[in-house]
Amino acid sequence: MILPYKGFGNEKEVFLVGRVLRDRGIGFSAFEDSRFRNFRKMYKRFMTWEIPNVTIKATLDGQEWLATTDDEGYFEFEIKNHSFPKIDNSWQEVKLELLDEVIPNQGIVQATARVFVPTKLVEYGVISDIDDTIVPTGATRVWEMLKTTFFGNAHSRIPFEGVSAFYQALEKGTDGKENNPMFYVSSSPWNLYDFLLELMDIHQIPKGPLMLRDLGLSREQFIAGSHFDHKLTQVEKIFRLVSGIPFILIGDSGQHDAEIYLQVIKKHPGRVKVIYIRDVAENKRNMITQIATQIRELGVELMLVTDTISAAKDALNRGWIRQEDVLEIIKEKKDHAES
């Protein structure tokens, strides 16, 4: 199977990554799935059978590009001088096809990759962490995180109250047209890509490219470097390919999001509107406060928030989202509390 990851870019260049793997038939999860069934599916995600050194063809509006998979089965396209149809739609499609025969009589192996190219209606972009920012994972407590990852599924993993409605509000901005690009940068491995897509779909979190990490040895190094370096590199890649617009950055206090975003602001002045950090680690509040002071001196506010509504009200006061969408966030939180 070809597993394409959502790509992104601009009118001149598009970045698209994917992987060629043996299809292990993982499929979608169900609310009633047992812990054993969840574990078996997650085991399959990590025990992958990669297909190295095969050629993938990308086709877009009659143009073709070729890429070869590496030792871990990954392929990467940097599509330049493309010709996306000139329509008012941020999401475009690229056709992918495996050109090599891996097994006898395999038939045609194809997939469709979705690529985000912002329209002129964009007000700002959003870059968000996932673990302990969108959904509780216990990322700072290894054993708890492993139990949550391997024995739960996309139905049982519940996002923080109001996150879905807040991210929908940010995507819509002030014109209500869902044109603002959403990016998700996480230290989770690419093995969880389909799981995270299903989680976001079930819980109605706006779609967008996911920038995850490689567990393999061949692309960079084991687990593709540090959490800090990975996130900083991916944010800078987004800034380069989606230029000319400011970004809202969202993270949590459990790991190093505040420190990473401080470096982003230093290296890219004028690109960040505000930073929202979810307060999930009481022992790091003093450190976050110190970082917030440094960021404020650079002309940007870091807001340490205890819940989603606090961030939403701040965004409303700054004129970035609509009043009716904030009311929907409050309603979502109330419904969650009553359920």
Shape summary: globular
* N-to-C CA distance: 39 Å
- DSSP strand content: 15-25%
What's the domain count?
A: 2
Helices, by number, come to 9
Q: What would you call the structural class?
A: alpha/beta
Provide the low-confidence segments as ranges: 217-224
Instruction: Describe the largest sheet.
Output: 8 strands, mixed
Q: What does it look like?
A:
With 339 residues, the chain is an alpha/beta fold. It has 2 domains: 2-116, Immunoglobulin-like; 125-338, Rossmann fold, CATH 3.40.50.1000. The chain has helices at 35-46, 142-151, 163-172, 193-202, 227-241, 257-267, 285-297, 308-317, 323-338; strands at residues 2-4, 7-9, 13-20, 55-60, 63-68, 74-80, 91-98, 110-116, 125-128, 182-189, 210-213, 247-252, 272-278, 301-305. The strands form 2 sheets. Strands 1, 2, 3, 4, 5, 6, 7 and 8 form an 8-stranded mixed β-sheet that branches. β12, α6 (257-267) and β13 form a beta-alpha-beta unit.
List keywords for this structure.
alpha/beta; single chain; 2 domains; 8-stranded mixed sheet; Rossmann fold; 14 strands; 9 helices; Immunoglobulin-like; globular; 339 residues; 6-stranded parallel sheet
Q: Could you give a quick summary of the protein structure above?
A:
The protein has 9 helices and 14 strands. With 339 residues, it is an alpha/beta fold. This is DUF2183 domain-containing protein.
Any chance you could write out the topology, listing elements then pairs?
Blueprint lengths: L1 E3 L2 E3 L3 E8 L14 H12 L8 E6 L2 E6 L5 E7 L10 E8 L11 E7 L8 E4 L13 H10 L11 H10 L9 E8 L3 H10 L7 E4 L13 H15 L5 E6 L4 H11 L4 E7 L6 H13 L3 E5 L2 H10 L5 H16 L1
Parallel strand pairs: 2-8, 9-10, 9-12, 10-11, 12-13, 13-14
Antiparallel strand pairs: 1-3, 2-3, 3-6, 4-5, 4-7, 7-8
Helix pairs in contact: 3-9, 5-6, 6-7, 8-9
Pfam families: APP1_cat
InterPro entries: APP1_cat, Mg2+_PAP
Protein name: DUF2183 domain-containing protein
